Amino acid sequence: MEFTHRAGFDSRPDGRRGTVLIHLVLALSIAVAAVLALYTAVTPARAAAYEGPSGYAPGTIVVSQRQRRLFLIGEDGGAISYPVAVGKFGKQWSGTAIVDGKYRNPAWAPPAEVKRAEPWLPDYIPGGSSRNPMGMRALTLSGGEYAIHGTNRPDSIGTAASFGCIRMFNRDIVDLFDRVEVGTPVVVGP
């Protein structure tokens, strides 16, 4: 008994044509998934407009460690809000700073305090490496070794996880990076 050929599938016992079609559909599915993953990696889907904390000048970055949110104050007093990770308990700090540097795909050398706590870390991790904890962008802050940066640990966002830096999803730090300049005031509160 001979089966008819339908929808690109071959009824022959080896089924080569059907296998090729399945592989093409699978490859197309993987390509679509890769494009979507790339798009979401750089799209600030988690940023949202909020009523901003009051009393700050437009353009100020305000970090609420309690809320685990970073606010960029807008001209109208509203804010763009992003979820963040903050310093571990005992590593959190409060105060004011300014953005004193902007870096794309920054390299990272662990500060002495981090190296003492985690001696297995390499002395240097190049920018763009999946092992680099700085992620896709970094805004360094005046007055110390702290930064607002992306992360290679997106599961840490919303927690107290760092040695004092403010971590953001990579898509969110890319968005914030493009909105602020060197000299932007930063206020980190409890």
Number of strands: 10
The CATH topology of the largest domain is L,D-transpeptidase catalytic domain-like
How much of the sequence lies in strands comes to 25-35%
Catalogue the unreliable spans.
1-13, 28-45
Question: Count of helices?
Answer: 3
Task: Measure the end-to-end span.
Answer: 78 Å
- The fourth-level CATH homologous superfamily of the largest domain is L,D-transpeptidase catalytic domain-like
Task: Please report the first level of CATH classification, the CATH class of the largest domain.
Answer: Mainly Beta
The geometry reads as globular
Average pLDDT level: 83
The main sheet orders its strands as 2-3-4-9-7-6-5-10
What is the topological layout?
Layout: H1 16-42, E1 48-51, E2 61-64, E3 69-73, E4 78-87, E5 95-104, H2 112-117, E6 137-141, E7 147-149, E8 160-162, E9 166-168, H3 170-179, E10 185-189
Parallel strand pairs: 2-10, 4-8, 7-9
Antiparallel strand pairs: 1-4, 2-3, 3-4, 4-9, 5-6, 5-10, 6-7
